[in-house]
Structure formats: structure tokens, C-alpha cells
Amino acid sequence: MLIFARVTLNDSGEISLQGGEGIGTVTRKGIGLPTGSPAINRTPRHTIETAVREAIGPTRGAQVEIFAPEGALRAQKTYNARLGILRRHLDYRHHGDRYPRCRKRAGSARSPSSWR
């Protein structure tokens, strides 16, 4: 699934992150994000904000819209609605398979074969 960013520069000095097509909205408390905000977890938010700040410098501002055209379709196959996330699938920790990439190291005690 492809994930895109649209960045609009401004002079506010602040970086704001918004969810576009395929990025859902948090509708319930309990997942560490404010209700009504884009359903993008803290670590990806920090990564995006840090990269944008590095690119634009310390005084400029930017509005960053993250969008994933296939996000709504992918969200139908997840538990997102039960978690209070509507219309999105965006998980930077997984890469198209059912195990996080960091746990796929051969011979690791935490490899998928030891999870059974």
C-alpha cells in the first residue's frame, strides 16, 4: 500500500499533521490519541514532524496531509472500528505480512516459528 504526504508551507512556525483520504479519525479514548485527530500513532507522528522540521528549518511552518488511497479498503480487514478508528489503515510497523519486520530475524528467540 502506498502512503503519500502533501506539504503546504506557511510562516506559522508550527507543523500540523492532518489525515486525508484513507487515514481514519480517532473516535474513542484509550489509544493514546485525542478523539477527532488523525489516527496516526505517536512514533510515526514524531518521525514525520522531525523530517519536515529538518527539511524546512526552525522558523517555517507546514501543514502536512498524510493520505493512503487504499487505506479505507485495507481498514475493512482490520479491527480498527472496534478500537475506535474509522476509515483508515496505516500501520508503519507491519510490512505486508502478519509479523513485524523486526521479529523476522532468522534464529531469533522471538521469531514467528517460536510464537506457536
From TrEMBL:
Keywords: Cobalamin biosynthesis, Methyltransferase, S-adenosyl-L-methionine, Transferase
SUPFAM superfamilies per the UniProt record, alphabetical: CbiD-like
Domain of life: Bacteria
Record-given protein name: Cobalt-precorrin-6 synthase, anaerobic
One Pfam family in the UniProt entry: CbiD
InterPro entries xref list: CbiD, CbiD_sf
S-adenosyl-L-methionine keyword on record: yes
Region described as Disordered: spans on this chain: 96-116
GO molecular function: methyltransferase activity
PANTHER family registered for this protein in UniProt: COBALT-PRECORRIN-5B C(1)-METHYLTRANSFERASE
Residues of the signal peptide: none
A GO BP entry: cobalamin biosynthetic process
